[in-house]
Amino acid sequence: MSLFWIVIRELAEIEAMATSKKVITREDWEKRLNDVKIRKEDMNKLVMNFLVTEGYVEAAEKFRKESGTDPDIDLATITDRMAVKKAVQAGNVEDAIEKVNDLNPEILDTNPQLFFHLQQQRLIELIRNGKIEEALEFAQEELAPRGEENQSFLEELEKTVALLAFEDVSNCPVGELLDVSQRLKTASEVNAAILTSQSHEKDPKLPSLLKMLIWAQNQLGEKAVFPRITDLSTAKLEDPPV
């Protein structure tokens, strides 16, 4: 991420100059990029961190062999974590809860919000499958008592139960609960909790660095005209508009 540090350095230098925008040519910008040296080992660790956190176990194993970069976690645990994540994404919430407890019972015992969201997802799946009576019984016996203890849980429960009042969910104001995105949100929450229980960062470092890069470019853009990356997928420098 040499570009990030160059942007920050340039921004600091400009702060001490006049208020008019400084113009930085592509030639000068590329020279500064080439002058910054980043160890390959550090870049490899960044890639491995992303693969491990996001659960790409096969890619992580291949990258370990090719680069000699050891992950900071047992790769076997990634397979177990991904099995939980996939179960939630497929709507098999009961199976996911069993798998989490097999991994570490304390994850759900010490995280009431996560457990509630898993149970909420289970209720959503019952409604999705048209099991109305079972859904009502489950909401009353499993979720209502938790809602009485926590106002935010009660609001989420009421929002979920509201799905039952609409035959056509496309016209339902809370119909987004039945979207795949809701499953993904719950699966992501479970994934983060498992990572935390394994003393691993719950978010990969790479996306955070890219966000920092965008922020730094925007800050520098207020002070200077310079080539910048506008498409993170290609990472190509784009000349500023004339």
Automatic annotation (TrEMBL):
Residues 77-134 form the CTLH domain. InterPro entries: CRA_dom, CTLH/CRA, CTLH_C, LisH, Ubq-SigPath_Reg. One of its GO terms (cellular component) is nucleus. PROSITE patterns: CTLH (PS50897), LISH (PS50896). GO terms for biological process: proteasome-mediated ubiquitin-dependent protein catabolic process. It comes from the Eukaryota. This is CTLH domain-containing protein. It comes from Solanum lycopersicum (Tomato). The gene is LOC101263084.
